[in-house]
Every structure is written in structure tokens, then in C-alpha cells.
């Protein structure tokens, strides 16, 4: 009777998916479990909007109006909207005002280095230890930020929070991609981005009710206590174990997953051992590192082109979001607009990548970005409504690109260097997010310059995408040799 309720698994070229199925009960549970860490990514990456919210200041010295004048002996902040921010806490005004923007650049740098570092650790020591480390590091350092006594102490621990956040973003995505089958991979990879958008939007809700920066930081950090459940519920990636020759551990995990999915378990060991024997006979076992992404010509080309797309996507998304959020009006409403527009774009990406493929979708979304930004440059003097419409079109295109580059990169890089590849792309992407505010500052030389610069980068991304092969519905490359051959005149 027990055998009758088992659901046979369709055998494919992928030895892992052939044991646990494409997408069943356990996959759904694991997906929602991993999503919990994605909310914090949005909160910690963009929390600066309210941690350093604009707080008008005035000089209390009689007959002195300029707060930056040396005759101004006492400065008063307008706390009618925000009771305290990092600017009011440490008097970051006048000559010290650039430190406010610099503190956010430090955050982006932390995400950049964290994604790369934990990506390498994930490939070297396993996805699970790297994932648990960055999750708990995010919780602990985030709480320490709340009690920062000095500005530079605040910057240091915000950097460490961001460092851990970059790790969670990279490793959590790799964990998902290595267990989901091709039929649902694009759907899961794209829906994985929704909590980031929700986290971004919910910042306005937190800030509306919590006007003190220390309690605001506490509120967006304390949720990470749920990471404790990961100790028991997140196993090592069976694909990583298989690729690195740890067959016994891989088989035990696959048998548990197969049992949860009501799939046969008695065939797991013989089929995995047979698949590994074939794999090692064809190509010797070899661990990878970030340099392996550049050793062979075709893998090097694909890596550079994918990294360029990450650079452009992050640059345009954060740059355009900053433009929308800086429009006159209510800061809470502006933040909601910048965040909510990403949700329909992310949902549309599901449909486009499924039916058009990753490559055509990325070309289309970059084209929408370029179109909106070039129109913004041309219509810059036609009023605020035209500016908002054009900027929103550019941001909408970027919101389609953002989840797609995650999906595309996760499928493009071989297993032995997948974390390294995703970490490298994340690092390059954060370079784009770091320089985006400085591109926006070019408006002092002309309002049309920044949109044109962003638009030119979008065109560059389109050109690079032409050199990346389509990955929809294909087995994930495992070895470095697979990564070099992947996309070379594949026979249908």
C-alpha cells in the first residue's frame, strides 16, 4: 500500500532533480523558509532613507540665520517629523554633511564585499555554514548599531550589517537554485525578489510609527531572531555535496527530501553513485575559485557580460529610485512609490522569462530602462508629471531586470564556482549602486546629464546580453568544463 502512494520522479540529465523531483512539497517549504531572510535585505540596504531622513535645522543665535556661519553658536533641528536621525544625533551639518551620504556608500561597499566573501566561503566550505554565519552576523551587528555612541562606530557596524546582508543575498539564492528543478526555477528565482520589494515598501510604515532612528534600527533588526530556526531546518546543498565528492552526506539529505516529497528513496544511493562515477570518469573532480571564472575564453566572456548587466541593473535601479524618492512631497509616500513600482515589474518578469526566455527578457527590460531615461533627458523641462512618468518607466524596466539577473546568473555559472560567480556579480553590482548617487549629483551641471549617463549604460547592457547564451529549461552546468562548453552551439 505504501508503494502506491509514492510519486515516481521523472528521470532527467540532472542527477539531483532525478531523485527529489522538479518542485514538490519540500521545495515549497524550503522556498518560504529561505524567503524570511530576504525581508532584512530590503530593510538594511535602504534603511538609510529614514535613518538619515532630511531634518531641517536653524540657528538659535540672535540675528544669525546661516547655521554654517561661524557666528552661529547653537543649532536647532526641526523634530516635528523625525524625533532623531543620525544627522541630529551627531550634528552632521555644514562641512560634516557629506558624511551622511558617505555612511550609505559604506553600506553599499559592505554589501559588495560581503557578497563576494561569503560567495567564496560558500564554495569552499559549503553553503550551510556560510549562510548561518551571515544570518547571525546580521542579527548581532544590527542590534549593536542601535547603541552606537559615536558616528564612526555607527559606520563600522552598519558596514558589518551590510557585509552580512550581502552574504545572505548571495548564499540564500544559491541554496534555492541548487535544489529547484528547471520547470519552476524562473518562477522561484523571481518571486524570491518580492520580499525585498515588500521590505523596501514597509520601511515607510516602520518610519511612520517610529520616528527615533535607534528604535527604527531595532525594529528592522529584531525580526532576524527567526534565523534561529535555520540551525535545524536548512541542510547543506546536496548539489554542492555531490559536486565536491561528499556522496554519503548528499545521499542522506536527498533521501530525507525524497521521503518528504513522497518519492522513492531506495534508488537514491545507487543512482547518485552511478551518476558520480560517470561524472568523475568524464572529468576529474576539481574545486573552483573566482579566478576560474576567467581562465577559459568563453566562460570569461560570459562572466564579464553578466557582471556588466549586474552593474547596470543596480546602478539604474538605485539611481532612479533615489530620483523618485527625492521628489517634493511626503517622504513616506515617495518611498512607497519607489518601492511599490518594483512589485508589478518583478511579477511581470515571471511571465516574460518563462515564455520569452532570460536573454530576450533582459534585452527588453534594458530597452525599457534606456527608453524611459532618454525620454526623461529629452522632456526634462516639460514639468514634474512628465519627469515622474519617464523616471517610473525607467525604474519599471530596472525592476524587471533585477530578478532576471539573479536567475540568469544562477543558471549560467557552474556549480563549483556558482557562489563565486554570484558573489562577483553582486560585488560589481554594488559598485554600480555606490556610484549611482554621484551620477545623480551631475544635475548641478545639467538636469539631462544623469538620465543620459544611465541610459548609455543600459545600451551597454543590451550589447553585453547578446553574448550570453539562453539558459531556460537547460540542466545546470556542474564543472568548469561544463561552464566553458555551456552555450556553444548546443544541439536541440
TrEMBL record:
GO terms for molecular function: transmembrane transporter activity. It comes from the Eukaryota. The keyword Transmembrane helix applies. It is found in: Membrane. InterPro entries: MFS_dom (IPR020846), MFS_sugar_transport-like (IPR005828), MFS_trans_sf (IPR036259). It is a multi-pass membrane protein. Residues 33-473 form the Major facilitator superfamily (MFS) profile domain. Keywords: Membrane, Transmembrane, Transmembrane helix. Pfam families: Sugar_tr. One of its GO terms (cellular component) is membrane. PROSITE patterns: MFS (PS50850). Coiled coil: none annotated. The chain crosses the membrane at residues 26-46, 99-118, 130-153, 159-180, 187-209, 215-233, 301-319, 331-351, 363-382, 388-409, 421-439, 445-468. Gene3D superfamilies: MFS general substrate transporter like domains. This is Organic cation transporter protein. It comes from Drosophila kikkawai (Fruit fly).
Amino acid at each position: 500500500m505504501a508503494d502506491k502512494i509514492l510519486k515516481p520522479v521523472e528521470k532527467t540529465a540532472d542527477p539531483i532533480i532525478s531523485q527529489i523531483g522538479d518542485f514538490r512539497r519540500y521545495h515549497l517549504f524550503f522556498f518560504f523558509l529561505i524567503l524570511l531572510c530576504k525581508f532584512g535585505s530590503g530593510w538594511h540596504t535602504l534603511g538609510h532613507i529614514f535613518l538619515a531622513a532630511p531634518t531641517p535645522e536653524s540657528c538659535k543665535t540672535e540675528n544669525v540665520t546661516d547655521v554654517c556661519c561661524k557666528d552661529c553658536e547653537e543649532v536647532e533641528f526641526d523634530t516635528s517629523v523625525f524625533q532623531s536621525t543620525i544627522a541630529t544625533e551627531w550634528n552632521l551639518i555644514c562641512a560634516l554633511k557629506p558624511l551622511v551620504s558617505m555612511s550609505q556608500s559604506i553600506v553599499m561597499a559592505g554589501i559588495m564585499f560581503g557578497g563576494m566573501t561569503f560567495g567564496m566561503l560558500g564554495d569552499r566550505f559549503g553553503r550551510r555554514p556560510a549562510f548561518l554565519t551571515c544570518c547571525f552576523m546580521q542579527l548581532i551587528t544590527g542590534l549593536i548599531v542601535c547603541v552606537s555612541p559615536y558616528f564612526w562606530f555607527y559606520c563600522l557596524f552598519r558596514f558589518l550589517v551590510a557585509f552580512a546582508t550581502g552574504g545572505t543575498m548571495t548564499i540564500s539564492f544559491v541554496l534555492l537554485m541548487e535544489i529547484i528543478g528547471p520547470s519552476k526555477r524562473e518562477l522561484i528565482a523571481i518571486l524570491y525578489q518580492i520580499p525585498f520589494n515588500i521590505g523596501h515598501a514597509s520601511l515607510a510604515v516602520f518610519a511612520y510609527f517610529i520616528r527615533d532612528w535607534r528604535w527604527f534600527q531595532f525594529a528592522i533588526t529584531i525580526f532576524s531572531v527567526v534565523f534561529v530556526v535555520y540551525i535545524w531546518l536548512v541542510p547543506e546543498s546536496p548539489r554542492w555535496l555531490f559536486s565536491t565528492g561528499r556522496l554519503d552526506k548528499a545521499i542522506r539529505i536527498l533521501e530525507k527530501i525524497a521521503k518528504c516529497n513522497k518519492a522513492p528513496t531506495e534508488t537514491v544511493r545507487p543512482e547518485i553513485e552511478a551518476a558520480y562515477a560517470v561524472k568523475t570518469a568524464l572529468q576529474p573532480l576539481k574545486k573552483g575559485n573566482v579566478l576560474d571564472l576567467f581562465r577559459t575564453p568563453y566562460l570569461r566572456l560570459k562572466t564579464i557580460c553578466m557582471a556588466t548587466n549586474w552593474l547596470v541593473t543596480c546602478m539604474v535601479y538605485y539611481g532612479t529610485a533615489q530620483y523618485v524618492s527625492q521628489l517634493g512631497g511626503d517622504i513616506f509616500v515617495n518611498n512607497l512609490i519607489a518601492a511599490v513600482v518594483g512589485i508589478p515589474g518583478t511579477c511581470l518578469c515571471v511571465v516574460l522569462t518563462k515564455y520569452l526566455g532570460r536573454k530576450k527578457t533582459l534585452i527588453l527590460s534594458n530597452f525599457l530602462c534606456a527608453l524611459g531615461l532618454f525620454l526623461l533627458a529629452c522632456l526634462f523641462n516639460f514639468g514634474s508629471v512628465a519627469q515622474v512618468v519617464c523616471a517610473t518607466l525607467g525604474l519599471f524596466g530596472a525592476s524587471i531586470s533585477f530578478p532576471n539577473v539573479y536567475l540568469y546568473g544562477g543558471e549560467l555559472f557552474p556549480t563549483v564556482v556558482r557562489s563565486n560567480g554570484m558573489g562577483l556579480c553582486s560585488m560589481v553590482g554594488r559598485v554600480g549602486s555606490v556610484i549611482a548617487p554621484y551620477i545623480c549629483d551631475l544635475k548641478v551641471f545639467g538636469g539631462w546629464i544623469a538620465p543620459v549617463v544611465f541610459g548609455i549604460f543600459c545600451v551597454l547592457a543590451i550589447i553585453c546580453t547578446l553574448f550570453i547564451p539562453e539558459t531556460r529549461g537547460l540542466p545546470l552546468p556542474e564543472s568548469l568544463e561544463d561552464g566553458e562548453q555551456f552555450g556553444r552551439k548546443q544541439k536541440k
